[in-house]
Amino acid sequence: MANTLEISQLRKEYRGFTLQDISLVVPEGTIMGFIGPNGAGKTTTIKIIMDMIKPIAGEVKIFGLDHTKHIKEIKNRVGYVGEDQFFYGDKTVAWTGKFVSEFYDNWDANTFQSLLTEFVISRTKKTRELSKGMKVKLSLALALAHNPEFMILDEPTAGLDPVIRRDILERFRSFADDGKKSVLISSHITDDITRIADSVTFLVEGKIVLSEAKDELLSKWKRIHYKEGALDETIVKSLTSRKAHMFAHSGVTDNYTTLKESLAEGMSKEEIKIENVNLDDVLISLVKGE
Amino acid sequence: MWNIIKKDFTFFAVYLVVVLAFASIMAIAVNNELKVSFVLISGFLVILQIVGGTFINEQYEEKHKGYAFLSTLPVKEKEIVAAKFCLALITNVLYVGFLVSLFALSPSPSEEIALAQSYILFMGIVSLALAGLSYIGIFGIGYTKFAVIVLSFLVALGLVPMFLMKSYQDRMDVLIDQILEFFTNLNWLIILPAALAFYFGLMLLAVKIKNYRSLVIS
After folding, report:
1. Predicted complex: ipTM over 0.90
2. Which of B7, B63, B76 is opposite residue A71, by nearest beta carbon?
3. Which of B63, B68, B74 sits opposite A72 (nearest CB)?
4. From 3.10.590, 3.30.420, 3.30.70, 2.60.40, which CATH number describes the A221-288 domain?
């Protein structure tokens, strides 16, 4: 399987923040969730991928092409929806579509028109009159109308109501259904990533701390509830997000598949219980550690 | 690149129409005779038109985060900068070309016409240089900061005529003669290509500055 996106050793420095040697791969036909708390460097990474800002080191390849040399060709094949939607506010939706269409080789006016109809966006409305959700939908229509092979989405659902959020997520999911197109979606709303992603990458304080297939990750990460003395001390020490209660304790392990056998006896005596975690729990464990 | 020029031309076009209408009305009002005041005002309007249009255009980009929007599209930064520079040049050629042709139709003596045309061409070059430098300033430190600096500079510039009048108090005739001689002796075969080369150099510098800004500041 070819890689749609390959990032290696990407570095960018700001006062008080460094994006540290980010390396990442998004294989063809997959959706990668890019998770991290606010200020972790998700937007910086995505803006570097889109060549909107320049890194001080590292390499980005999209469709096997160096993005500094082939950015025009790459952007022709990429759909981008940013965290903030910038349009010329005094212009209408129709004008915006026409203006954007002239930059793309593969623009499909019929697709754009049908997306506007589907999203119930008035063509004659000025873009400044659109709500936040409508602006995201217009961005999405613009991003999809040139038949992209790769969608890059930076917090596209932030600030949207649950109905619009679900609509938009469904659209991303169906985009990658053909097995050829890929999606990179960043979010701090881990529910969104759980719903659509095949793999997840966690970014904390400018560093990638974990990158794995989502199902594999969720099978390894579990919360263990245990009675005092039921768990070996070395296992207890390896747990993160530990909590001590009066009658039982709990902690999160990232190694459940290996520990499973050694926990079996305690589980049969009901001294140990295993609970599934979600990506939020994983993120909190990674951010807060102990 | 052309769609960016097309979008931005609206701003220049509005002023272009106003200024050209003014020039035409003035020309008719003075019975096609070239009056010094009309020629002088036309020259200043060239600068106002080109530099003013540049600032209004950039204010619009700033207000709507236009560059952030454009950066998401398949267009290179150097194409965006080139579009801005091309537009200032096209508008300049249109405006200066119109005035030079208008003056040529005047029944005034040919030396006077040549002098007026020389003055307008000179002001066209000054306005191009100012527009280029403005883009460098805007791309270098941002529109808002640069606009404040330019406003302060313009206030200071307003003192120059007062200073000149004071210095040449009893020698105004000498000053005017010197200015007339300067415009009469301009060699346009050398100045025009040199000015265009300088403008092209400013454009390349603006591209470098814009790239540098996105490397260091963004």
Report:
1. no
2. B76
3. B74
4. 3.30.70
